[in-house]
Every structure is written in C-alpha cells, then in structure tokens.
Amino acid sequence: MIAETLICLTDEINEFFRTKLRVTEDKVVISPIVNLEGKPAIVGENKIFVTLLNIEKETVIRPGLAANSINNRTSNNAALNINLYVMAGAYFSSANYAEGLKLLSLVISFLQQKGTFTKDNTTRLPNEIDKLIFEMESPGLDKLNNIWAMLGARYVPSVIYKVRMLTFDSSVTTEYRPQIGSLSNDTNA
C-alpha cells in the first residue's frame, strides 16, 4: 500500500502538471535522493522527486480519520494504522533553479487545493485505500538539517507532508508482482 500511495500521488501531480502547464513528460518521479553508495539516485535533472522519509504508527484515531478501518471493512485487532512522511523536492540544475521553485510551488498549491484523496475525487486511488489526507509539516531548521544529514544528501528546496492514514488489515490482502523489467536490470548490474 505504501508504493501504491506514492504512485497515486505522483500520478495525480503529473496529471495536474499536464493540465496546468501543458507538458507531456512526467515532471514528478518516485525516487530515493541518494543510492546506497551515497550518490544521487534521481535519474536525470529537472525533476520533482517524491520520497518516503518515515513510517509512523498512528496511535490516536480522530473522528474522520478512521475511514480506512471502519468503512466497508471488518475491524479486528490485527488492523494497524500508519502515517507516512513524504518529501517532495526540486532536483533541478542551477540553470533551471527558478523553474524548480515554480514546480515545487505548484505541488504545494495542488496539495493545498486537493488535500484529501477519496474515491470520489481520485480515480487512481487503490481499492484498498479509502482516503488519504495530506498535511504539510513544518520542521524547524534544526530538524530539517537533521533530516538532510540522515538522508546523506545536500539540501534542495523541498516540502514535507504527513499522509494520514493507511490501514493494514489482515482481512485485506493484495498480491505483489515484481516488474519483469526491474529484474532484468538487476541482473545486468
């Protein structure tokens, strides 16, 4: 469900960019910032990247947030509610720095406008997810410095969102099928 959430998010933002900016290429990609060797992992330049920063267990269920575990599902003790911390950043060359800031601003605008992904307003929302709520986080400079140090990367303009909430329920199972293309690339490495 985590991958499906990030895929849905990037697809929605790319569609927003196609409509708003009349671009044909995807400007938003899911990617770690650095690879295991500590080198940039984002393929190409001039992209907005989306990366997972953290997974947090939701310990307090507020009214309106528990749709995943209540609506159309049998609730049981095995259900686990989690929140994701997701970063969107502008990975742009210095010559295109201003364009990166504009696209990052559009990401913020899009998530401010839409805020909540539901079955009614997001056709790409996976069946096992009833609702996603995006809340902008504002870490102070000290925390932000720690985040970038933890990532092992140099700072780029970015924004962090808390995504509420995914419910992992033993009654809901999905099949995982790895992409054949990714397997063939791994064997050539």
Structural class, from helix and strand content?
alpha+beta
Strand fraction: 15-25%
Radius of gyration: 17 Å
pLDDT < 50 stretches: 67-76, 182-189
In helices, the fraction of residues equals 25-40%
General description of the model:
This protein is α+β, with helices and mostly antiparallel strands. The protein has one domain. A six-stranded mixed sheet has the order 1-2-3-6-5-4. The longest helix is centred in the first third of the chain and has 20 residues. It contains five helices and six strands.
Task: Record the SSE blueprint.
Layout (H helix, E strand, L loop, with lengths): L1 H20 L6 E3 L16 E11 L9 H4 L9 E12 L5 H18 L1 E3 L12 E7 L3 H11 L6 E11 L11 H9 L1
Parallel strand pairs: 1-2
Antiparallel strand pairs: 2-3, 3-6, 4-5, 5-6
Key attributes of the depicted protein:
alpha+beta, six-stranded mixed beta sheet, 5 helices, 25% strand, disordered C terminus
Task: Write a short abstract of this structure.
The chain is α+β, with helices and mostly antiparallel strands. It is 33% helix and 25% strand. This is DUF4255 domain-containing protein.
